[in-house]
Amino acid sequence: MRPRKTAMVLAGAAVLAASGLVAANSTAEPLAGDPPDGGPAIWEVSDLSPDEVRDLEETGFDVAEYHDGTADVIGGEAVADSLRERGLDPHFEDSLYKSVADTGVAAEGSYYGGYKTPDLHIDHLDEVAADNPELATAYDVGDSWLKTQGEGGYDIKAICLTDKQEGDCELSPDSAKPRISIVAQIHAREIATGEIAWRYMDYLVEGYGSDDRVTELLDTTEVWIVPIANPDGVDIVASGGDRPVLQRKNANDSGGECGGRFGIDLNRNHSYQWGDETTDPCAETYQGEGAASEPEVQALEGLFDKIHPDQRGEGDGEAAPADTRDVMISLHAYGEYVIVPWGYTPDTPPNDAELRELGGAIASHNGYRVGSGSETVGYTSSGTTDDYTYGVMGIASYTFEVGGQSGECGGFFPQYSCLEGDLWSTNRDALTEAGLAAGAPYGG
Ligand SMILES: [Zn+2]
């Protein structure tokens, strides 16, 4: 039982109400350019400088994406009106929710056409490990915030996949095989990412011995996957059912309820170069009270520290050596980018050329644009997962932003059937490309 569940459903409703995402029983005709159903939408706002975008974020607007001077702001009519009051000119880009088609493949207990709850993810991971003892080892690497509070919550689970030999898949950095770590749904509402992680586990265990690339990968490499890095947040998202809740952060509400927008942004809470983000607990990019203050981030950093060797010196300008091993991919949505470090500064990291070269090989599969945060999503972000694994250990680290901006397969909530198409298959091959490079991501 999860005693907070009912509270979470209510909190989810509060999120929607507070952010104007629920159409307020309006009988007025929608204005031209307004969302056809009056529901929550993606609003495009152009001619914005990075400083103006940051200001919007810190004022409490939910900025989903920003590139070439144009930001996507999420919300209902009230949000569009607030933007207009600031002298901005929001244009309706797309509805947030897609029609929930009967995909015919929806697992029991799933939501929004087939997406999986944390419980389903945890059961699945344990099942993959139990059914494939020669290939898989499951680990409990920490607790979610609610679990640390004794209020329900979840374990953070990881799985190691390889053709297991003596000493493989152990929590020690000096493994015989190189490693790739894959982290999904650290931002809870980026729902396609957990699904990609789920499918990637199945793809590897089912393809071993029959698919040449999968066999090569598991013969040579350990693949570590954390499919749900923010289970409390995913539980809130899933509580919306066919109207998933927009929870991005974890469930830590110690900074206040914020009209339902509580939580810490886990991808701003990592300990490397932490501290340049907003201190407003209600902002979507709230960095938290301290570096790695959140149990979910402690779980990830604890795992990384145990399985990846530290291969880089202390100085930010010090390159990791050419024979560095291991790769980390953090899966996010959306925008169709493969993002390289640094996140915290527009300056380029010492391994910039090598990171971009492998990034290009990875992106040859999903067709995404390769660049730093400043070049792609358009702003700097401190305390990110990839800055931690590159900055602390020197391993080749990337953030994928999966999916496009609009259409049935775009935005935070793509139709579940999109996972039958490119969204899954191209990212699957991109992950395998990255994994096969884990022995020498910088060329040797
Ligand atoms: Zn994200």
Automatic annotation (TrEMBL):
Molecular-function GO terms, alphabetical: carboxypeptidase activity
Domain of life: Bacteria
Stored InterPro entries: Peptidase_M14
Active site, per annotation: 401
Chain segments annotated as transmembrane: none
N-terminal signal peptide: 1-24
Keyword entries, A-Z: Carboxypeptidase, Hydrolase, Metalloprotease, Protease, Signal, Zinc
Pfam families (alphabetical): Peptidase_M14
Domain Peptidase M14, chain residue ranges per copy: 111-437
UniProt keyword annotation of Protease present: yes
Cofactors, names only: Zn(2+)
Protein name: M14 family zinc carboxypeptidase
Organism of derivation: Salininema proteolyticum
Record lineage: Bacteria, Bacillati, Actinomycetota, Actinomycetes, Glycomycetales
